[in-house]
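#struct-help
A.M.: can someone run this one for me? Single chain, 196 residues.
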Amino acid sequence: MIIIYKRSTGEITGSVRDPNENEHSAYYETAEHGVLISDRENLANGEHYVDGGEIFERPAKPAQYHEWDWGSRQWYANIGAARNAVKAQWNQWRDRELKAGYVQDGLRYHSDETFMNELSLILKAYERGHFAENSLRTIRLMDNTNMRMGWSAVENLLLQIGLQREAIYAQSWYAKDAIEEMTSIEAILAAGPPAT
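D.P.: on it. Structure tokens below:
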């Protein structure tokens, strides 16, 4: 078996079965690629390399978010990948929490931007005199039931949902800022969002 590898890194990039391998191996040599004759097969899978004319298996990956460096033939901790992954988890948590709704007096209200815009529109209508000051408006809850509310209740609900959303964003921002300062994968992974 003719093993073809990168001279710069030792990474095995291919192999050729040739009955005249000793005579034909020179055909596969280039400035970038060297060759080695071996009876071993299935080596072009990224798990083996050539060093000093011998074939070695790369060591097992030590932990998540480690990447193999062919130049040094060592695993290194990819702190950036770990940070990005955990920050993405925080973004997913934030989005999930924002859609989970706002609970007040045992009732779950929508808390997304569309609902907040609807509440704002109702308040504008009250302010501009389109609704009588003491009239009630119908608000749809997350369980698809209706609730009748007056001006001050709508205003209070909009304020409370806004404060909850602000707290969710702040928790996410604070966590992601703290992750940027962390220097170990273990600390970064431990800084993930709360389980839901």
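A.M.: thanks! The mean pLDDT is 91.
D.P.: also worth noting: The longest strand covers residues 2-6.
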